[in-house]
Every structure is written in structure tokens, then in C-alpha cells.
Amino acid sequence: MNPLASSATYQVDMSLHHDYLTATDFYRFLQCPHWPYFERFATDEQKKEFKREMTEPERNRLENGIAHEKDVVTALFKDENVREVPVTRDAEKDCEATLALMRDGVPIIYQGTLTSGDWTGRPDLLERREGESSFGDWHYVPVDVKSTHSLEKYQKLQLVFYATLLERLQGRFPAETAIVNSDGERLTFTPADCISEFDEFVLELERLRAGERPDLVLRKSCFDTGPWGAMCKRLCEAEHDIALLYNVDVRKLRALRGLGIHTIDEAAAMDPVSLDGTAPGLRLHGLEVAKRQAQALKDKLVIVREAVALPSEGLEIHFDIESDPPNDMDYLYGFLIRGAEGDVYKSFVAERLEDEGKMWAAFMAWLETLPETFFVYHYSPYEFLRLGVLEKRYGGSQALDRFREHMIDLKELTSSSIIFPLYFYGLKYIAPFLGFRWTGTVTGGGQSVDEFEKFLETGDHKILEAIMLYNEEDVRATAYLKDWLVAYATQKNAYTEPYPWTK
Fold first, then answer.
1. The pLDDT value given to residue 15
2. What gap in Å lies between CA 256 and CA 63, rounded to an integer?
3. d(Cα 229, Cα 42) in Å, to the nearest integer?
4. Taking the CB of the first residue and of the last residue of the chain, which one, N or C, has fewer CB atoms within 10 A?
5. Are 232 and 222 contacting, i.e. CB atoms less than 8 angstroms apart?
6. How far from 346 is each of 194, 303, 410, 469, CA to CA, in Å?
């Protein structure tokens, strides 16, 4: 599955009446460059037609996240002199209230506002440090509270943003910043290490704020995280833009556009050999793949670039994990087991947060029963990575080591061997293209998270049954793709419409 990020999908603007540059802009831009642009410049008609409204579960997660943040601050700093700044949504007024506390040397300031010109930001915490500033022999560093165990790019950029604002207000650039997670772990970060990248993003955002539309991109996060995915897709399709090419990053898109290649047709006709090395990021292999991807989209081709070889003997197992990121837990392991008795679905379920360890123990016991020869198919690295996390949390075994040694990531295999006429290569895109259909009321990883949150609140087992059906259909989709690979991808080929598997 592709789990929902633990951070809130939508974030609150700092001001309702002024176009400030905010920390939220960095987050939005990294998810979808058009998100901050459309928020500022989309017409009322475009907002009505294309903007996805925040769902009730998303609102609940946002509210719960704010409450959780305050609980973490209270728990971690209960013995400290923490002062909270009341938020009025007047950035200038809130900044003055914050500066008053900074001048007084308050040890920790919660929800302070930093405003300079048309920049404003609200770090979760401002912590006093020894060292001279305009306030005296002390200064402040920004600290955010996040449910994370590693620093993401947007979090680093936001911390540099706060550090830059602090430099303007206190006359000293903080030497370090940090993220504090819900476990009390402090992830430190040196903002000076990210200045050049930060400056590049600021230039992009300032051009955007001036009314210049960003270059077209189309990412899965435009749909999964942001509200403007439908608009991004409409623009890309209307212009037949190379942003529709799967797995071509922004740097390569810019390089291609710099060479006059803007459309799918132009990419399909380009000469990779002559373009090799003409711009940063443009190398022969990547250019050849991009050309074939363009040809696939233009002519609706399915291209088998490399023959696929899969094991023909041994027990066949298809594996998928369902997770609840807001609670940092996995609550369902699902398996489709293909043996002498046919296809059998098996699952391990944790119905309460505290039952995750029991579920893991039952799973570990089952691993001991597996035969000598088996292969485990999954789609994306997520399952493999989560097993590592859970092993650290609850302990491993030789049987677990053997299980992981026999795991085969069909996403990696498929994306490296097959070119589809698709914008994205997620299982929810490829499997329907090949003819598989999900039939349940739960149809995506984000929705499964929402439904499990409802189950925790209500205890309604009908909700859990719907999630389990979704998980079962996920592993059946994986098996469907595996069967397709065996039937149609064991030798190099190119398929045109009507495709043989649709007859």
C-alpha cells in the first residue's frame, strides 16, 4: 500500500488578508508546485470545478495533530518555563507579542510568530540559547514538533525559513535547529547546510507569488496530498506536456525544455544519442527510456524492454501491509497463498493499538511453518522496509531473515522492465489497466487509514471487514500482475491496441 503521510494534508495559512511567504508554501511546493500558485491565482470557477475539498477524516487528522502537538509539548517541557503566544491571525501583532517574550528571555516560546516584510512563519517552539543577539547575551533557535523519525526535505526547508526570519529579527542566524518527535527524540539539523537549496526554492516561490505559473509537473502527490491534482492533469493533457512522462524528474524536464522538447510528440521523436550529455541530467539511458515512455503514451503501446524471469517452483505468497501512520502502527498483514488447495487469503490483524506486538508474534510463529522453498511477492519497497522497523520494535528470527531473502518487489521489476502508456506506475493504476478491478467500498491506502481510524473509535467490525476485503483485493491484484508478467513479459515485445489480454 501507499500509506498516507503522517502530516496533515492541508495546512492553515498564516494570514487571511495578506500574501505572505510562509513555511506552508515550501511544503505545498514540494508536494505540487502548482498548489501555492493555484491557491493565489485560481479563479472561483476553477476552484469550484477542480479543487478537491478537504475530507472529514483529513480535518479530523489536522485537528488531532494540533492537539497531539500541544500534548507532546506539555509532556516534554512540563518542568520548563514555556509561554504560549495567543494566535490572532494578525501576523504583525502576533510577531510583536513574540518579540516581547524574546526580549524578556523566556526559555521556551510555544506558537510564536516571526514576521519580517512579507515573510511570516510560526515555528512550534522557540528555544533560548546562550550567545549574543540583539536581545542581549541570549538568542533563539526554532524547533518543530512532528511525528517523524527522519527529517524530510520540506521540514529542513521550513527550519531554514524560520532560521532566516530569526536572523532578521535577532541579528543572529541559529547554528542549529531541531525536530522533536512524539517519542521525545530530538533530530538536530544545521540550517547552514541547506542554504543554497533554500535560496533556490525561495526564488521559485517569489516568481510564483509574482504571478508566474510554475513549469508543468504531474506527481502522484498532486492527487494524494494536494487539492489541485485534477487541475494539474488537465493542464498537462491540454498541452501534451512532457510532464506526463513517468518518472522523469524536474531537473530532466527543465533540461529537455531547454532543448526545445516540450510535448509528448517531440519527446517521442527525439534522438537520445545526439542529446546525450548536452545538459545536466541528460544521459543516454534515461533519454532512451523517456523516448520510449513518450512513444507508449503517443501510440498507446505496452513495451517489454527486458524479458522478465520469475521463479516457477515453490510456494507462491503475495503480501501487503496496512498501516495507520497517525498512530505509527501496522494493523494488518495480508497474504494470498497459492498452494495445492488453490488461492487462500490469510491475515493477521491488530484490532487495538496495543495489539500490534501480539500480531507480530503470531506472524513470527506462522513464518516457522513455511516450507523450504517459497517466494514472497509484494508491490513497492514498503513491506520490506516495515518488516525492518517491526523487527527493531519486537525482535526478529532466522525465519524472518529467510522470509525477507525470498521477497520479490514487483514494482521494481515491472518499472525497470515494462513501459506502460500510463502517467503513474502504482498498483492502483497498472492493475486496472491490465483488467483487474477492486470491488469493495475501500479503494485506496488513504481511505483504509481513514476507515481504520473510524474502527478504533467505533469498534464496528463491518468497517474492519471492508478494510480486510480491500487488503485481500490488493494481494489478489499483485497476483494478477504476476500472472500477466508470466503470460506476456517473458520476452521483449511491444503490444498495441487491442491488447491480447483484453480479448
1. 43
2. 43
3. 13
4. C
5. yes
6. 47, 34, 20, 11
Q: Which helix (H) or strand (E) holds 128?
A: strand 125-133
| Structure-derived torsion over alpha carbons of residues 425, 428, 429, 435, reported in degrees to the nearest 10 | 130
Given this model, what pLDDT does residue 2 score? 34
> What is the pLDDT, as a whole number, of residue 23?
97
For 287, phi and psi rounded to 5 degrees?
A: -65, -40
In this structure, what are the phi and psi dihedrals at residue 494, rounded to the nearest 5 degrees?
A: -140, 125
Which DSSP string corresponds to 238-303? HTTBGGGSTT--HHHHHHHHHTT--BHHHHHH--HHHHTTSSTT--HHHHHHHHHHHHHHHHT-EE
Residue 137 to residue 129: CA distance in whole angstroms: 9
- Which residues, 6+ apart, have CB-to-CB distance to 385 below 8 Å? none
What pLDDT was estimated at residue 143? 96
Q: What are 472's three cell numbers?
A: 485481500
CB 489 within 8 A of CB 307: yes
Cα 226 to Cα 51: distance, rounded to the nearest angstrom: 9
pTM, rounded to two decimals: 0.87
H/E stretch holding 206 reads: helix 195-209
Separation of alpha carbons 155 and 206, rounded Å: 19
Q: 3-state secondary structure string, 304-369?
A: ECCCCCCCCCCEEEEEEEEEEHHHCEEEEEEEEEEECCEEEEEEEECCCHHHHHHHHHHHHHHHCC
385 burial via Cβ count (<10 Å: 0-12, 13-18, 19+): exposed
- Round to whole Å and give the CA distance between 99 and 97: 6
Q: Are strands 136-145 and 418-419 parallel, antiparallel or unpaired?
A: unpaired
Angle at the Cα of 249 (from 151 to 429), degrees rounded to 5?
95
Q: What is the pLDDT of residues 328-354, one digit of tens each?
A: 899 999 999 998 889 999 999 999 999
Question: Within 130-186, where are the H helices?
Answer: 153-170
Q: Containing H/E element for 69?
A: helix 56-76
Cell of 383: 513491506
CA neighbours closer than 13 Å in the CB half-sphere of residue 89? 6
Asked whether 270 and 261 are in contact (CB, 8 A), the reply is yes
CA dihedral 153, 158, 159, 161 (to 10 degrees): 130
- Bridge partner list, 189: 177
Below-70 pLDDT ranges, the chain: 1-17
Q: Report the interhelical angle of 356-367 vs 398-405 (nearest 10°).
A: 80
